[in-house]
Amino acid sequence: MDNLERGAQEAVPERDHAGEEEKLLRAARSNDWAETGLRDRPGFLIRRLHQIHTALFLQECASEGITPVQYSVLTALGQLGPSEQIVISRAVGLDRTSTADVMQRLEKRKLIRRRPSPTDGRSKIATLTEVGINLLQRVDEAASAAHSRTLEPLTADARRELMQAMRTIVDAYPDLERKAN
User: Fold this and answer.
1) How far apart are CA 175 and CA 160, in angstroms?
2) Looking at the domain covering 3-172, what would its CATH class be?
3) Which of 102, 119, 157, 180 is deepest in the core (most CB within 10 A)?
4) What is the C-alpha end-to-end distance of the chain, expressed in Å?
């Protein structure tokens, strides 16, 4: 993933998101690609779907200034409890560098707390703070709305089939290396 794509995924929280989600949605709605043959490439369609979902997520969660990646990290911490960053990295599907960057942003916002691991000084253990728990509870409904909006064009059966197909693909490559680029 290049820096531009990572920036779209993981925007700096202090940055003003006003209009950003609308810009992403406009780009996502554009069908200039329709006659290029790109519509037959799974990688292209997956990237476009990611853009659409990111824009919808930013719309739904705009009041909290949280990105999909940050939400995933907070969700993983909420479900796993205090965890080493490498565990969160694997759970969320991020490389170590990206995970460290996200964790640093979340810590600055006082959503998580990090401390050195008692068994390995090079490793850090992250824990949700009360502020993080409260934000996660507030965002859950909005994030769910973004997920529903992403799949809205599909019938209920098609939604289930798409979700199962995506799980099948993801599960087929459990050890594929996660890289930032």
Assistant:
1) 25
2) mainly alpha
3) 102
4) 4
